[in-house]
Write a structure and sequence with these properties.
6 helices; 7 strands; seven-stranded mixed beta sheet; alpha/beta; globular
Length: 213
């Protein structure tokens, strides 16, 4: 039986926080969006939710400085994390962002999955691979989203998707890879389906067995 699709259009902003101590209670299911500062993270969130102003976009990469929470339904949240890498900002500010990102990823109990965005023309950079390894070791579901897919024709796009799928096999079977374009809507149905599935609470087989007795 197929999982019912969530209505991502109904998402609304909850809060922005400099660190996890300023976030709401650590319960429910959160799926976090992370990526290099020029990967198109905010544009992807806006395209997925069909809300042009949900996540702030800027021509200057690296403007997501806080942990931003959005709620789909009670207990189901999207999280926009500070970008890593590219941002042309003072080193003190960059270190502060990185500390908030690292703390969230390591300590937030409600984090169930990570959407890792990469420019389809420049995938699997060193920091991306580090994030993949960490998420895999943490037993998270992982969606590698190859953004700006409209920059390539269909055949080269498919070839890169297959290359990245092959390269990420080492991180286990929890990794999915999809091409995405916020401009053309490429990949939006696939991402909606994958995330809807991941937002369903995991059923404990032991609990079912106990109830049956």
């Amino acid at each position: 039986m197929d999982t019912p699709l969530l209505n991502f259009h109904k998402v609304h902003f909850v809060t922005s926080a400099p660190d996890i101590r300023h976030l709401p209670n650590d319960g429910g299911i959160e799926i976090a969006f992370a990526g290099r500062s020029n990967a198109g993270k905010s544009s992807a969130l806006n395209a997925l939710t069909q809300q042009r102003q949900l996540a702030r976009t800027s021509k200057t990469p690296g403007r997501t400085q806080l942990i931003n929470l959005f709620e789909l339904e009670p207990g189901k949240r999207l999280v926009d994390l500070p970008g890593y890498g590219y941002a042309q900002v003072p080193i003190e500010m960059k270190l502060k962002w990185q500390a908030a990102l690292s703390e969230y990823l390591q300590k937030r109990e409600s984090l169930h999955a990570l959407v890792l965005l990469m420019d389809i023309r420049h995938p699997l950079k060193d920091l991306d691979l580090q994030m993949l390894e960490w998420a895999s070791n943490s037993d998270l579901n992982i969606l590698v989203l190859l953004t700006k897919a409209d920059k390539l024709n269909a055949n080269p796009r498919r070839a890169i998707v297959q290359q990245v799928r092959k390269a990420t096999l080492v991180f286990g079977d929890r990794v999915k890879v999809e091409a995405f374009s916020s401009l053309k809507g490429i990949g939006v149905p696939e991402v909606t389906r994958i995330l809807s599935d991941w937002y369903q609470p995991e059923i404990d087989p032991d609990a079912i067995a106990d109830e049956a007795e």
